[in-house]
């Protein structure tokens, strides 16, 4: 299974995918919309091809997305993984990769779509928080959820301590979900997500 990963920053989820033992997938390329980010170094250190496509150099989202599609499709990927990629994608991009585009979002969706999820969970007085992996559809952070992990919110937590605890779960579940897809256990059907042929 040929996987292309899109990042904008640190790339700790990319690292977790690179580090999984006996992984049933190959990360064939990493794209970033930002130059100089640590995730690019992680990819290079692992011998993975990298591309920087600065969104600021394109007149609009559609043109930027078409430039990404051109690069991504050279790798003939089976799966596109968004791992801390901080750009909203156009309908054309999402449709082009329909059923083979997944994202990780640091909340228990459908709660807290968008940004600052950890702070919002704390301010709401939630007892639990977590992370979701989902197929990407045209609704931002709204595609069908594949897997979630829950963490307790502890007394004294701030957004940073909570984010760190959530990240620990991200690094466990995201490589596993990519493995499910690679092993053809995971599919997006008209009726929703199927794992081993069973609706989730
Ligand atoms: C993660 O918290 C992920 O949930 C969110 O962006 C962050 C990416 O972290 N979408 P990293 O770049 O993988 O370290």
UniProtKB/TrEMBL annotation:
Raises pKa of active site His, annotated site positions: 141
Alphabetical UniProt keywords: Purine biosynthesis, Transferase
Residues of the Formyl transferase N-terminal domain: 2-178
Source taxon at top rank: Bacteria
Residues that hold (6R)-10-formyltetrahydrofolate according to the record: 61, 86-89, 103
Family membership noted in the UniProt record: Belongs to the GART family.
Function description: Catalyzes the transfer of a formyl group from 10-formyltetrahydrofolate to 5-phospho-ribosyl-glycinamide (GAR), producing 5-phospho-ribosyl-N-formylglycinamide (FGAR) and tetrahydrofolate.
Name used for this protein in its record: Phosphoribosylglycinamide formyltransferase
Gene designation: purN
